Amino acid sequence: MDNARRLKLMLLLGGAGVGMLTAGAVMTVRGVRGKGEIRDELIRQKITFPAQGLPAEYGRYAGRRVENGAHARVFSEMIGGNVRKATEGRTYSEISADLHAVGGQDERLTELRQTAFMGETLRASLMSAYQAWQVTSLAVGLGAVLMGAGAAFVAVGAVLSSAR
After folding, report:
1. What rounded mean pLDDT belongs to the chain?
2. First-to-last CA distance in the chain?
3. How far is 135 from 144, CA to CA, in rounded Å?
4. Counted domains in the chain
């Protein structure tokens, strides 16, 4: 390969590598910061698993605070179980339809609808935190991959520049 072609290839690979390193670093930093923001918000909410009375599958969380996406997902599942139990498995929509069918004047159905609404709203908020946590994890992982590929491109460009 002649020197001009090698120089062009080296600059192309080196430039792409530097771009990938930069993009990867930005993704990683933003992902880590995002995780910190999610953690800070969950901690500010002071959500704590009950110390006693949890179903066996949630026992290891007893008394712990919700501080990350995985905890938010588990707490959301726990709320979902409580809502299903309280509503006998009926959804907000089903209860609302029943309430409308009786002219909206049933106090028990009104309270049940409120319970379903509040529970499902809390679940949705916690699931949003879980999903955001997953996205930030993806950003960190992809950022690391980009930095590794970028470093490889820069290294190949450097090898080409020193080849005679």
Report:
1. 93
2. 9
3. 14
4. 1
